[in-house]
Request: fold
Amino acid sequence: MISASDLRAGMTFIQDGKLIKVLEASHHKPGKGNTVMRMKLRDVRTGSTYDTTFRPEEKFEKAMMETKAVQYLYSQDDVAIFMDLETYEQYEIPVSTIEAEMKYILENMEVKIQFYGDEVIGLTPPTTVVLKVAETQPSIKGATVTGSGKPATMETGLVVNVPDFIEEGEMLEINTQEGTYQKRANK
Reply:
């Protein structure tokens, strides 16, 4: 059992027979009354998200997840195909359940998928990925790193804010936890 105050983003627990993933978690102390835990949660099986609050002492059953290293092969019809790197077994995951994560993944990239029993729950991309800038405004001569930046669309469709000197075709390192530009990738 795990208490609500110990739940963090990325953790999965069981509530009323449902598998729930924590998207955001924060302590909230109102002016009057007791501290509460504000949470943004997602029902793993249905994909629905909702906001709720819990008392910090409430207890939940922690879901025992298994993680496997797999390679993303391709997407076909609304399904993404992954291959286990040890057994070469293939897994199909509906793209709708991993839509946000797919913006960081290219074909043949290694990722980790989570299982609850035999059920595929989700995937975790690497902490940083290298993506190519597909579209952005022309660079500004004399632009500095401290400028406000501009939006850039990466080859996967992900849009990130980048410094003004970045040009189309450049390879950039992107942080997958925050969805932010880190630096130019080494060539």
